[in-house]
Amino acid sequence: MHRQIAGSLTGRVTKWLVLVAVVVITGFMGVFSAKLADVQNNEASSWLPGSAESTKVLEELSASVDPNDIPTLVVYHRDGGLTDADLAAMEDDGAEIADLEGVTDQGVLTPAAAEAAAAQGAPVPTLVSDDGQVAYLYFVLNFGADGWNAIPAAADEIRDIAKIDGGEVHLAGYGGQAADSAEAFEGIDTNLIFATLGVVIVILLFTYRSPILWLLPILCAVVANLIATGLVYLLAKYADLTVNGQSQAILSILVIGAGTDYALLLVARYREELRRHEDRHEAMAFALHRAAPAIFASAATVAVGMLCLSFAELNSTAGLGPVAAIGVTVTMLVMITLLPALLVICGRWVFWPKRPTFRSVEPTSTGLWAKVGRSISHRPRRVWLATTGLLLLACLGLFRLDTSGLSTEESYTKEFDSIKGQKLLTEHDLSDNSNTLQVVTDTDAAADVVSALEGIEGLSSPGEVQPLADGRSWFEATIDADVSSPAATGIVEASRDAAHAVDGADALVGGGSAFYVDTKIASDRDSRVIMPLVLAVVLLILIGLLRAVVAPLILMATVVLSFGAALGISALLFEYVFGFAGSDPGFPLFAFVFLVALGIDYNIFLMTRVREETATYGTRRGSLIALASTGGVITSAGIVLAATFLVLGSLPLVFLAELGVAVALGVMLDTIVVRSVLVTALNLDLGGKIWWPSKLDSADVPLTEAEVEAPMETVH
């Protein structure tokens, strides 16, 4: 940021204008922020692209099958067997549930109704287990396009009705899963934010060792979150942006974590300048002038990296791109406007009890990171070779990373009600008839397609073929496996192979399990396309920032190496410590984008300072000064960001827990190992060569022992 612009933002009058402007914007956007949960779309079917086979099936069936139908089961269980009174109670419950708002005209299928239909030769599922211990009701809920938001209240009504004395009752099927998913994300707009802020406050208190200073970064982070979530709400409401509970959780975490990082960098530079300038307005002008380029570059890297997700086929992934980019951009703007204004308004006393007085000694010149730099400088090549070897060793854990997908039970870190119901159905050999395969085919070849699907293990006999428009027909068959399990995936793939092999049928296979299969296919494609794209755009940003080629290439290589090591270690933790069954197919892509975009931040913070000091001291001496000056603040920033992502583990979702662990681990590797050891060692070994083709350090003079041991002080 230009010196005059920086000064104008924090002048004696403009600081108050900035404060008033931000307060007005926050008040306006805060009204919309509270409504973000109302525009979430968490239905799996809305995440897939139009090119997916299951989406095409849904489109062809739209006139015959309502896409808003939610098959739901109420599962009853009694050890020793359900009594006649229990079965009678089920019939009464079915009649009462049928009268509830949202239950379709199809009514409720009860054991008695199924038995009567079977006696007349109708093809109906078995609703009572052979051992008599488990039975279930089947019905369909439909609340139109607002189904997701209406499910929790409907689930509460059904649970109030369905009860048996001495037995247990569970809500399962798609309706039960939707209710549990809503519970998993319940309070995400408040509980998660409060937990994150609590963690950050503790870390800031330890970092600043001031009972007052932490308030300003936290206040600015809250303001940024209100503005960002309000803006995202407007885009979701009026611009068709896909927002789900997952992206809202990541948005809040990212805003608070990144905002605190930017605040730490700016406050640290401001404290330095307060020791050099008597006037705090002048000190802030210099601090903002020096720190803003790193903050701009960091925010641009994360925002552009996130926007690369917009090229994803999965709508949920594509939607996260602009959501996260908006959050980071808003956060950056708040941290270079509101935070400087508040710091200048408050004055030096806000640093109490350790106020940085004019002409006092800069403590970082002889601190921990200055000592680390000196120890690396004696044998930099040996250091970076050894560090690289250890990180490559950690990458071997990638061979244990299983991204084939998770069953419904495996997707949560606790056992929800629908999972208990599904387990009872499985244990007592009852099929969950809410999970069906839907097949659309040309009418003339329908019989051949039905025959082709006969005998596929885990797939029931196809039901009646029903006509559609334009010479097309469709039918269903129940999948005897959990909707998102690997077993269901195998059944869908076998069914598609068989149906597609029928000449002239133009058969398409969809349904609930097929959605999960298509999600994996889209996730694999997105990883192949987006990962190289993110690397390319981040590299271009680094080249523009550092005005060099070699240094950006080195930084990108170190971040990719850090990503591999973080994922390798995480895979071992998932399997042997947490006991997770595997990972979501989209996990590697999300982890990659966050770790590359966020991990490069700390290298940006370091290397912009190295470049600044190189102009005066040369690359090697400048690297030691930069490490001494930024080491503490970057480590603190890394701890804050790692801790905020770990808060994702408080949500009972394996995907978010794994993402939080992987990003936290990767961030800590970046801040403590990659940035402080590996990058610094490479800088000291290569010297001025890292700036090629720039002539920034054409002398490329080796360090003398006296320079290594000299205090790490800068001159301005």
UniProtKB/TrEMBL annotation:
<feature type="transmembrane region" description="Helical">
    <location>
        <begin position="215"/>
        <end position="236"/>
    </location>
</feature>
<dbReference type="InterPro" id="IPR050545">
    <property type="entry name" value="Mycobact_MmpL"/>
</dbReference>
<keyword id="KW-1133">Transmembrane helix</keyword>
<feature type="transmembrane region" description="Helical">
    <location>
        <begin position="653"/>
        <end position="674"/>
    </location>
</feature>
<feature type="transmembrane region" description="Helical">
    <location>
        <begin position="291"/>
        <end position="312"/>
    </location>
</feature>
<keyword id="KW-0812">Transmembrane</keyword>
<feature type="transmembrane region" description="Helical">
    <location>
        <begin position="586"/>
        <end position="604"/>
    </location>
</feature>
<feature type="transmembrane region" description="Helical">
    <location>
        <begin position="324"/>
        <end position="351"/>
    </location>
</feature>
<dbReference type="InterPro" id="IPR000731">
    <property type="entry name" value="SSD"/>
</dbReference>
<feature type="domain" description="SSD">
    <location>
        <begin position="213"/>
        <end position="345"/>
    </location>
</feature>
<dbReference type="Pfam" id="PF03176">
    <property type="entry name" value="MMPL"/>
</dbReference>
<dbReference type="InterPro" id="IPR004869">
    <property type="entry name" value="MMPL_dom"/>
</dbReference>
<feature type="transmembrane region" description="Helical">
    <location>
        <begin position="383"/>
        <end position="401"/>
    </location>
</feature>
<feature type="transmembrane region" description="Helical">
    <location>
        <begin position="190"/>
        <end position="208"/>
    </location>
</feature>
<feature type="transmembrane region" description="Helical">
    <location>
        <begin position="248"/>
        <end position="270"/>
    </location>
</feature>
<keyword id="KW-0472">Membrane</keyword>
<dbReference type="GO" id="GO:0005886">
    <property type="term" value="C:plasma membrane"/>
</dbReference>
<feature type="transmembrane region" description="Helical">
    <location>
        <begin position="624"/>
        <end position="647"/>
    </location>
</feature>
<feature type="transmembrane region" description="Helical">
    <location>
        <begin position="529"/>
        <end position="546"/>
    </location>
</feature>
<feature type="transmembrane region" description="Helical">
    <location>
        <begin position="553"/>
        <end position="574"/>
    </location>
</feature>
<protein>
    <submittedName>
        <fullName>Putative drug exporter of the RND superfamily</fullName>
    </submittedName>
</protein>
<keyword id="KW-1003">Cell membrane</keyword>
<feature type="transmembrane region" description="Helical">
    <location>
        <begin position="16"/>
        <end position="37"/>
    </location>
</feature>
<comment type="similarity">
    <text>Belongs to the resistance-nodulation-cell division (RND) (TC 2.A.6) family. MmpL subfamily.</text>
</comment>
